[in-house]
Amino acid sequence: RRRKSAPTPRRYLLVGEAWDGCCGHNWLTWGNPAFAGADSGPPPHERDGWEKSELAHLSKLQLSRYDGAAFAGNSKTFRFARRG
Length: 84
Description:
This protein is mostly beta strands.
């Protein structure tokens, strides 16, 4: 069996509208508990060995295609880091 030449990434970023389904899947991509099934258990990223944290200093600088005077600040930046 051939091994990959590149190591598994230790960290990655996701940027987008995290909590309302405009970018990715609410549960599978972002781990939004409001969209988990009754027997879902922990979010998929946690089951796969990743920790998620918002980079709020970047999130507050972002614009979303739906942002407006009454609806702003929906785009977020999250860092996923391998545990261990």
